[in-house]
Amino acid sequence: MTGSRPALFLDRDGTLNEEVDYLSNPDDLVLIPGSAAALAKVNARGIPVVVITNQSGIGRGRYDWLDFAAVMSRMDTLLGLEKAHIDAVYASPHHEKGQGDYAVADHPDRKPNPGMLLRAAEEHNLDLSRSWMIGDKDIDLEAGRRAGCKVALVRTGYGTEVEGDLADLVAADLPEALERILVMWP
Ligand SMILES: [Mg+2]
User: What is the percent of the chain with per-residue pLDDT over 90, rounded to a whole number?
Assistant: First the structure.
């Protein structure tokens, strides 16, 4: 079933915040400059903001869900300072080198698979064909593309190493990407 609202799907690390290897300490969270103010504009348009993040560090036992929640809580605080917020967060802990139940190769949720976007669309009544996915890796673009979204590459995080041919839009960073997407969004 197709939902009625477009959404903004966002990778987290390297897109919304500076890339940190296995980020698990809230004190290490640094937003990409201008991102909070840019997200506030998306919020003001009534477009849901949904974070879609691979967190193999949880599956590998490098950190746990409480650490993840602490980082997201810090994220909420930093965004809130600029009247911005995230509406929903989806995280995949799965990895072929994961532990226990998380030891799954090519799990449907793990980007580049589109499982998290598809579930978000169902749970939040989202129209994927009018939605955008923004990320700094080709797996972000592929997941968004396979979910039926338009996709944007940002040149932060690992984004300098990606070719960009897969992207509908290539921007220096999240604020620039959102500035250009917001004028295209009806
Ligand atoms: Mg990333």
Answer: 95
